[in-house]
Every structure is written in structure tokens, then in C-alpha cells.
Amino acid sequence: MKINESGSTHNLLEIYRSELKQAKNLRAKKDAGTEEENSLLNISPEAREIQFFHQKLDGLSDVRQDLIENIQQKIEDGSFEADEEKIINGLFEEIDSVKDLKR
Hints:
This protein is mainly alpha-helical and 103 residues long. The chain has helices at 7-39, 45-59, 65-77, 84-102. It has a domain at 45-102.
């Protein structure tokens, strides 16, 4: 008995290949959708507000040039007087704030 590939067998193979290709495409789309959904990030209103203020702070300069120039001028003309108590209190406040951050 000789078995030849008939037209119906060939058609079945083509249908099977087509189904495999469709299943593979569906899995790829599903995986892409899952990755896309996982990449989304929901930020609470509080976190958005914190983020907003961080951006504003990043835009500010750490140096107030007007104060520096004012103090430099006072030093040059001899009218600058340092308030030792204010300096010491400021240092203590800074030390306390650093200790609070470490807790």
C-alpha cells in the first residue's frame, strides 16, 4: 500500500501551520501587553506633590549671591559684625536636624 500526500493532507498541514503562527502572534501580543501594563506606574497625589517640590528645589541655587555680595561689602568697609550667638544656635539646629534624619 502506497500513501501519497493528498490535497486534503496538504491543506491540513497548512491550516495547522497557520494556527501555530496565530497562536504565536497572540502570545507575543499578550506578552507585550503585560510588559506595557507592568511598566505603568501610578503615583499618589501626595507623591506628585513631593515630586513637584523636589523639582522646584532642584531649580533653586544653593548660593544667594545678593547676600554674599552684601557681606563682602560690609567686610571691605569694616562694618561687618558677626553675631556669635546666632552662629552657634544655627550650628546646633543643623546638628539636631542631621541627628533627626539618621533616626
